[in-house]
Amino acid sequence: MRQHLRSFLFFSLGILSFASMGFAQAGGAAGSAAGAKTSAADLWSVSIPKPPANPAPAPKHDISGTWTPANGPGAGIQASGVAAMPNDGKPEHQPPFTDYGLQVYKSHHALEGKDAVLPGFYDDPRDKCEPMGFPRANFYNLRETQILQDEYKIAILYQYDTKWRIVWTDGRPVPENIDGGVKAGKELKESRFYGYSVGHWTDDTTLVVDTLGMMPENKVWLDTAGRPISDKLHVIETFHRVNHDRLEWSVTIDDPKMYTKPWVAMNKFPMMLESPQRDIMEQYCSLTEMEEYNKLFANPSSGK
Q: Which end of the chain has the least Cβ crowding within 10 Å, N or C?
């Protein structure tokens, strides 16, 4: 009921050319699945291909491509909280809150999870169209995702809210969290909604990304179930390209202000390669639509 209006986004060839080298490697089999002789008119309706029975090996140091959740588009919604730790009331799915983290969690009024409130009483900043921030971008409507790559950096383009982030792979050091931002090399930089990301390859097919420097707890949530994060957060992501057509995406949360120890929020989440010629549907947050939703449904259904 909270799905936002969708329309088509026509990505420019200029943007896609950013990853021409990566797509040349990663897009071969997927491009063939779409059909090498596809007419120009039909390129606007390239479908999601079925994965081949015997996929080619993963290319070396390359995660570029257009990816979608392998278990279907609904798999990335994660409405009840992060995929590996849904907020369902089970003890094994309770994050290791600090006293302060639990206090902040209880102050949130989420629409999903075991402590969900009625629709007229939620206070999720995302549903007021505030910037989602990171790592919530990985946990809220994770759908078709484009990864573009060159010799210095990787750009991750998310379908929802047409947002992106940059992962530097040029050998620069991982920033250090400090009050109000990060120390990045010799510079002091401000906090950012999507932080500062640095990646390194641990082997030919595995990229590990460290992200720090996110916003404080009054700006962002971790997930739709209202779990908190702070500006002391350190996110560790692992992108493992299993073969040419499959990518596994893992996320670990390390936030000593909110949690007593690191914990896994997404564990080898499977993504499937699509055709590099597939046009991605646009999704976005509209404040006027949210206001209309509150007026016509949320408030009346909650007795307001």
A: N
